[in-house]
Amino acid sequence: MFSNSQIDIDSLPKFQDVQLQPISSKYIYILFFNLIFTYGIVLITLISIKYIFNQNFLGNYFWFAIAGILLLIGIQAIFMYLNFKTRKYGLREKDIIYSAGFITNKTTTLPFNRVQHIEISRSFLSRKLGLSTLKIYSAGESGGDISIAGLPKSVAENKYAFLIDILNERV
Fold first, then answer.
1. Which residue in 4, 17, 31, 49 has its CB near the most CB atoms, within 10 A?
2. CB 133 within 8 A of CB 121
3. Rounded CA gap, 11 and 129, in Å?
């Protein structure tokens, strides 16, 4: 006989009770480097066009454009810093939780039985700072993939080994 009893929602474990761990504070250097590098290319290109190819490039608005880009860098740096402070992760017996976002906070909880693939990646700057990115891919197209950037290399490797052990127990 089919049974579909109602669940007492108050008795379910709450993800808010999990003590989430922040990512490494060194990761902010990578974020700021990427910001400066990207806008640096734009600024160098504008200045090169003005002084190498055409003295009247954008006319009187050239310095307003430069000031606007510098203001945009400042605003984006502030939001980047505030967003960085919200990046946290946590492990429980049966799932992993990742939370990020200053204006719009997104919390993803991925049950281990949905984990399909795990990898660790390290960019050039990440290697220099001893950081890694742990990527956890879920089964299906639910958008539940988690990418935790800014973990110390040893922490990422420990989490990777822990998750691999759990995946191997399923097989």
1. 31
2. yes
3. 43
Structure tokens at 13: 């474990």
Backbone φ and ψ of 151, nearest 5°: -85, 140
Q: Residue 152: which of 120, 170, 169, 130 has the closest Cα?
A: 130
Q: What is the pTM of this model?
A: 0.81
Confidence at residue 15, expressed as pLDDT on a 0 to 100 scale: 65
Angle, alpha carbons 107-72-98 (nearest 5°): 10
> For residue 17, which of 86, 92, 83, 85 has the smallest C-alpha distance?
92
Helix or strand holding residue 138 (H, E): strand 131-138
Domain layout of the chain by residue ranges: 27-83, 89-170
Chunked into runs of 10 residues, the chain (171 residues) has average pLDDT values of 80 75 96 95 87 72 88 96 95 90 91 91 95 91 84 95 87 64
Report pLDDT for 101.
93
CB-based contact 13:61 (threshold 8 Å): no
Question: Per CATH, is 89-170 categorized as 2.30.29?
Answer: yes
